[in-house]
Amino acid sequence: RMDLCAEMLSCAFVCEPAVTMCASQITATLFLGGADAAMNPALVSRRNITLIVNATLEYPCPVYHGVECIHVPVSDVPHARLCDHFEDVAQHIHENMTGSTLVHCAAGISRSPALVIAYLMRYKKLTLHQAHEWVVSCRPFVRPNVGFWRQLLHYEKVLCGNNTVKMAATSLGVLPKVKDSQDRTLPSCVNG
Known about the structure:
By secondary structure, the protein is an alpha/beta fold. The chain is built from seven helices and eight strands.
């Protein structure tokens, strides 16, 4: 558990060279960003990116020597089935031992954070609540769409047997709500 805490504290926002070329460091070898990060050869080289996960329909996989690119052709709409890719993407990230991984979508706000959260739940054994907090601590402006939240909730239920986040009706529509802070007995992911 201490290793996870150290990794969470090492989150960094990596910009090279312009503010639009930003990727957020989630772990020592995992970065999250928008398409501009993937199209930045200096960032890819400097961060030793050897795997790019491209979660867009609108951007082609960049071609770099020694870099594998996995294309996840999913729209950023609530009915898109991003969950069909959770296991495969998480496994590829986990098995990338030759360098770092960059997971990106168009802006690094919805699709790619959802994939990173799924990875953290699967391989770091975090709850959805913990994984979301981790990613937000590294990249504060992530906002997976409501459909991706529902898919992450289902994935958490499969992995952990319970949910640590619920959907709630608000004035802005149905949004995810982390269980009340008074609930000091948040379930942990004990399966797996």
